[in-house]
Amino acid sequence: MSAALTYRLDRIPPVDAIRALYAAAPLRRPIHDPERIRRMFQDSNVVITAYDGNRLVGLLRGWTDFVWDGYVCDLAVHPAFQKAGVGRQLLDLAVGLGEGIQWVLQAAPLARDYYAHVGWEKIENAWKMNRAGWTPTSYETYQAEHADLAARA
């Protein structure tokens, strides 16, 4: 890990770098489908990245109207950079996009305690419609299936 990371707003990283980071994080996303990953980022209006040199080590993907509502879709940090403030900095940069935006997110099971640790409030008034056509495997299975890709992150 280098001394200073570089954070960038609204730059979409290469799809292969995103897929590798998701596999390493592990953030269960459809990394077997590069086109779907590309479209996920193409159609998001908030993309914030963290780089160690040219290496993608963190990213936040989301949507906002820049006035009232914001949604964090993904927060992924490479395991070698977790507990170094990367996730908090990515979240802080999103929150700084506009005064008065209320940000929400759905925490991955492995990250539920993290968000309270960085000052986010747990809410109970959310609803969801399950995603059709994709049922995620366990984290253990996901990591085993994508170990080769994760090693590229």
From TrEMBL:
Organism: Geothrix edaphica
SUPFAM superfamilies, alphabetized: Acyl-CoA N-acyltransferases (Nat) (SSF55729)
Stretches of the chain forming a coiled coil according to its record: none
Upper classification of the organism: Bacteria, Pseudomonadati, Acidobacteriota, Holophagae, Holophagales
Name under which the protein is recorded: N-acetyltransferase
N-acetyltransferase domain: residues covered: 7-145
PROSITE patterns attached to this UniProt entry: GNAT (PS51186)
Domain of life where this protein originates: Bacteria
